[in-house]
Task: structure prediction
Amino acid sequence: MKIAVCIKQVPAREWQPRLRDDKAWIREQDVSYEMNEPDAYALEESLRLREKHGGEVVVCSAGPTRVQQVLREALARGADRALHVEDESLSSADASVTAAAMAAAMADEKFDLVLTGLQSDDQGHGQTGVVLAERLGIPHSTIIMEVQIEGGALRVKRELEGGWFQWIAMPLPALLTIQSGINQLRYATLKGIMAAKKKEIRKVALPAGLQAGQQIVALSLPSRAKQTQIIGGSAAEAAKELVRRLREEARAL
Amino acid sequence: MILVIAEQRGGELNRATWEALVAAQQLAKRAGVSSMTVAIAGDAAAAAQELAAAGVGEVLTVAHPALVSYAPDGYVAALAQVIQLQSPRFVVLAHTYQARDFVPALATRLNAPLITDATAIAGAADAPTFMRPMFQGKLAAEVKPVGGGPCFVTFQIGAFRADQLQRGGGPSTITPIAVTIDASAIRQAPEEPFQEAARAVDLSQAARIVAVGRGIKSKEQLPVAEALAKALGAEIAASRPICDSGWLPMERQIGSSGQTVAPKLYVALGISGAIQHLVGMKGSRTIVAINKDADAPIFEVADYGIVGDLFEIVPAMVAELEKA
Ligand SMILES: Cc1cc2nc3c(=O)[nH]c(=O)nc-3n(C[C@H](O)[C@H](O)[C@H](O)COP(=O)(O)OP(=O)(O)OC[C@H]3O[C@@H](n4cnc5c(N)ncnc54)[C@H](O)[C@@H]3O)c2cc1C
Ligand SMILES: Nc1ncnc2c1ncn2[C@@H]1O[C@H](COP(=O)(O)O)[C@@H](O)[C@H]1O
Result:
């Protein structure tokens, strides 16, 4: 089985937002990056499927040169090789451009299964996987919490809202968007890190003339909906005052 | 014209559809669009009646044997026909799991832009723009659709209030729309939705809840939060990553994919306040947030906040509570 996993490099969780002067994107110089969280779960799922069914795991990312770091990390965790659609403009590309770029890069690979995360932690469109499936002409299902493959048939557990689930069957090849928590992650071993150095990262050029579906006019800090009473002072003072207000003002104790 | 695509399951209207209708009305006002149409797919006669009774615009019912149980291929095929027939300027939906599942494919098939998870409408009448969260809610983005029409927009649940719907003078007409679907081209075969084994804890009944997020750092640190829960007489709950990591059982997860609660007191420890968490707890009467990041979105819904290290503040709270 030949499996592709789409991996996005996103700002690390502790990152404090700082904007570029034109406000249309973030100041990338200040950012330290990591693997988009659901994508790490998608990668883990692909490694488990390969352990069970054999085959190959190819990790794919669209972005500037820096994204090689997450591709190397994925190779260290056990992926076999990588595809990198490389272009500076991809750092802030929307889902339409990203999916079109990935579809072009994947076209001759004939993957049996394509996994993406359900959503990116930076732009958060929750679209790229489904758009990619449509472009590749393969069926898809989203927010997946379990994957079963038997005799070339795929059966997946899709998460619905409020603690409901649903099983969906579909033929391969197919694309699934993976939800965080589908499995327990493994981390790279020293051996894996050494082995990754010899694995191939194939660079693919961004096709010209891809049409975006949206453009960022400006980024800003979100406005506060409600006035929170912030309680200051030392930890002990703040704790004391909070308990007092919960008792006397909010009558919540 | 603005086309709103309603959502139903088992014939019952998803309440988020009412919010999408309010968003669509505001968009109509902003963009100077005078008419609105609502489409509903599947076996949904009663839901269509309910929509028509609101009198906000003609209701199109899209019934076909292949649409009885939801599958993305069927919905994309059917709704693409409806949209081509109606030529709306905007197509509006609630940003539900179902919308996430089929709308990106539908918009791509029609070569149209899609803006997801919008929270507000901005921009000029001839070029409306949309506000949407980015970077996990740390930033708000104003985005502008580009390319061909119609423009698809999904609105975040809770961003618009259903009770602000402007009802029409009388009921709207219901018009069935015939679509052709090749049932064999629907590749997904869905089974019946189900819930996992009955929950042992029903957090919706708890008077007080102490919820922990990733700020707790490790499973070994959970007793810090448990001590506060004990001192407050509260149940312990968590954000999704804590349950994903197996530190607490799934049944203690609060949010869109977990439980929805509205206790007297909700204390959020080291929780950033992602929208999927907020929808599960923002109805709580008193919300306390303890977070070391003053800009964390959780402070948008909190009544009381302490900006600081939970490992210092929580033990101090426990000491204070135990004094009395
Ligand atoms: C479809 C979908 C469904 C989802 N469903 C749910 C759901 O049901 N429930 C849910 O919770 N999430 C859900 N999520 C995930 C959600 O988007 C967030 O990723 C998640 O809620 C973040 O959890 P967190 O706040 O614990 O972690 P983070 O976002 O990592 O936040 C940790 C916080 O802890 C603070 N912190 C760190 N150290 C300390 C310290 N020492 N003292 C004080 N504060 C500290 C940090 O400042 C930060 O704000 C869903 C996501 C999707 C896409
Ligand atoms: N630039 C990218 N490179 C690789 N994968 C991506 C990229 N952008 C998005 N994806 C994949 O698509 C998923 C959804 O992203 P989004 O539509 O931005 O929420 C992510 O979890 C990734 O798996």
Summary: Chain A touches chain B through 83 residues (CB under 8 Å). Chain A has six helices and 13 strands. Helices of chain A lie at 37-53, 68-77, 95-106, 128-136, 190-196, 235-248. The radius of gyration of chain A is 21 Å.
